[in-house]
Design brief:
Blueprint (H helix, E strand, L loop, with lengths): L7 E5 L5 E6 L4 E4 L4 E4 L3 E7 L4 H5 L1 H14 L5 E7 L5 E6 L4 E7 L6 E4 L4 E5 L3 E6 L3 H6 L5 E6 L3 E7 L2 E6 L4 E4 L4 E5 L3 E6 L3 H6 L5 E6 L2 E6 L3 H13 L11 H6 L5
Antiparallel strand pairs: 1-2, 2-7, 3-6, 3-10, 4-7, 5-6, 8-13, 9-12, 9-16, 10-13, 11-12, 14-19, 15-18, 16-19, 17-18
């Protein structure tokens, strides 16, 4: 029997999506601070310490402190917000994605009860889903993984929603099947997927390749979710445009083009 609240949902939009969750009376959804967009009258908001899962409650005060402290390590806040339908009919609450990309619904009951994802990927979930950390066992993964030694893990048998940048697609790996991807492009994997880091050989690759020294190797069986635009890559490009003189990139207009589109001198 499911231990997490059973929620209905729909995802709206294309590039800037939001997820609308329908709550029956006394059902609750939990979300990160800053992801809330709108809700119907009759839904009560409450700030909770940690994720409010049964696993955390069983640990007592010490368990709550440890669980919340671990959330800080993966870039999440100590507190979350619970949205509970206190009325008699169905009520809706919506959560928006923080940057252009896609919202991925994860039915943990169909994914072995556990999904490992990148830091800051979690958006919202049904109450009862546990949000914790997952340490990578290999030292190489921890030092050179790009996204850090610590990943985020979602556990339970309910719905959880994560967000990633650009276009996101799902890849099903057969037993022994191996793919190699940029470390920042990995969004989430099921617990059966073996994850490691591999060195890109050759001094020319390292200096001139422009893709870094390492990439992630994912070996099946299991499911993998991959994003085309990691937020770190997007932020780096925006920062480079904002802090350096703009390159003309072969434009025949040259500096005149800057004047015409408002950049001036």
């Amino acid at each position: 029997m499911p231990t997490n609240h059973e929620i209905d949902y729909r995802i709206v939009g294309e590039e800037m999506q939001y997820v609308e969750i329908e709550l029956d009376p006394n059902e609750t959804a939990i979300a990160e601070s800053g992801s809330f967009m709108m809700m119907d009258d009759g839904i009560q908001m409450q700030t909770i310490f940690g994720d409010g899962s049964q696993k955390q409650a069983q640990g007592g005060l010490l368990g709550k402190l440890l669980g919340a402290g671990k959330r800080l390590i993966v870039g999440e806040s100590l507190f979350m917000t619970a949205f509970t339908n206190t009325g008699y009919g169905k009520r809706k609450v919506s959560f928006a994605s923080p940057y252009p990309g896609k919202i991925i619904p994860l039915d943990l009951s169909r994914l072995g009860g556990k999904v490992i994802c990148q830091k800051d990927a979690f958006l919202c979930a049904a109450k009862g889903v546990s949000i914790g950390i997952d340490f990578q066992r290999r030292l190489g993964t921890g030092i050179f993984g790009g996204e850090g030694f610590i990943m985020e893990k979602l556990e339970g048998d309910g719905m959880a929603f994560v967000h990633a940048g650009g276009h996101v697609f799902e890849r099903v790996l057969q037993a022994g099947e191996l793919i190699k991807i940029d470390t920042g492009c990995m969004v989430a994997i099921t617990q059966t997927v073996d994850y490691d880091i591999q060195f890109i050989g050759g001094i020319r690759n390292s200096i001139f390749g422009g893709e870094g020294l390492f990439f992630a190797t994912l070996r099946g069986p299991g499911k993998v979710w991959i994003q085309t635009l990691p937020v770190s890559r997007l932020a780096s490009r925006i920062l480079s445009y904002g802090t350096t003189n703009r390159k003309e990139e072969g434009s025949i207009l040259g500096g005149l083009g800057n004047v015409l589109d408002g950049d001036g001198y």
